[in-house]
Amino acid sequence: MIQTIVTAHYEEMSQLAADQVAAFLIKKTNAVLGLATGGTPLGMYDRLIQMYHQGKVDFSHVTTFNLDEYIGLSKDHPQSYAYYMWHHLFSHVNVHQENVHIPPGVFEKQEQVQRDYEQAIERAGGIDLQILGIGENGHIGFNEPGMDLEVATHVVPLTEKTIQANARFFTSIDEVPRRAVTLGMGKIMQAKHILLLASGKEKARAIAQTVNGHIDPRIPSSFLQLHPHVTMIIDKEAAQELQEVSSV
Ligand SMILES: O=P(O)(O)OC[C@H]1O[C@](O)(CO)[C@@H](O)[C@@H]1O
């Protein structure tokens, strides 16, 4: 079931999302968080850092698993998702480095990386709260639209749309990696709770298809309709194509 909360703007979306994560961590101090990158969660991470400095949230017992990483970028590459996470969240809060998990972008044995990542999530007891952004084409993590979807962690070629959308973070589109490693739909759907964030009119179609459309691998996010506990916090631009919405 998808509960949808529409906010006036990005800032309100970010604050509400941070409040929900903080409330979750107060209830379950040793929570396993699934984390997302991209532009959307940046405001939420900023607010979580502020709340941490105000003593309102504690990451000392939290374990994290990131959704994805670009293939070919080492963890100190400024556009890698590992760099992003340390830069935008982990270095500013009291999470323990050994509790942080991000799939490697450079590796020798692909199958082993995929298996190790899945097993680490299982050993941690599964993901309690999965934060998701959404691509304009409905991708979640880097599960790109297609005729079928992968259950397990896997390597995926990025679609032209995703490469174009993510080119804004690179000096030129040629620098955007063409492949990524991503959590599959299985571990995302097994998360006990999911919090999806979206902002801007570019996401409106994907959000409408997520909530009101048929469940279809060509819109990977539409599978979230099958999950029992999804909360979507989206701003009103991202909500503009929804059939029925309730605002905060
Ligand atoms: O928040 P953004 O930058 O629009 O990205 C949306 C989604 O695309 C990705 O960045 C991958 O392309 C995801 O990590 C993210 O959830």
TrEMBL record:
Catalytic activity: alpha-D-glucosamine 6-phosphate + H2O = beta-D-fructose 6-phosphate + NH4(+)
Family: Belongs to the glucosamine/galactosamine-6-phosphate isomerase family. NagB subfamily.
Domain Glucosamine/galactosamine-6-phosphate isomerase intervals: 11-225
Pathway: Amino-sugar metabolism; N-acetylneuraminate degradation; D-fructose 6-phosphate from N-acetylneuraminate: step 5/5
Signal sequence interval, chain numbering: none
GO cellular component: cytoplasm
Matches recorded under InterPro entries: Glc/Gal-6P_isomerase (IPR006148), Glucosamine6P_isomerase (IPR004547), Glucosamine6P_isomerase_CS (IPR018321), NagB/RpiA_transferase-like (IPR037171)
Pfam families: Glucosamine_iso
Catalytic residues of the enzyme: 68 (proton acceptor), 137 (for ring-opening step), 139 (proton acceptor), 144 (for ring-opening step)
Species of the source: Pullulanibacillus camelliae
Class of enzymatic activity (EC top level): hydrolase
EC number: 3.5.99.6
Source species, domain of life: Bacteria
GO terms assigned for molecular function: glucosamine-6-phosphate deaminase activity; identical protein binding
Any single GO BP term: N-acetylglucosamine catabolic process
Alphabetical keyword list: Carbohydrate metabolism, Hydrolase
Matching SUPFAM superfamilies: NagB/RpiA/CoA transferase-like
Transmembrane segments annotated in the record for this chain: none
Function (record text): Catalyzes the reversible isomerization-deamination of glucosamine 6-phosphate (GlcN6P) to form fructose 6-phosphate (Fru6P) and ammonium ion.
Gene3D superfamilies: 3.40.50.1360
Full protein name: Glucosamine-6-phosphate deaminase
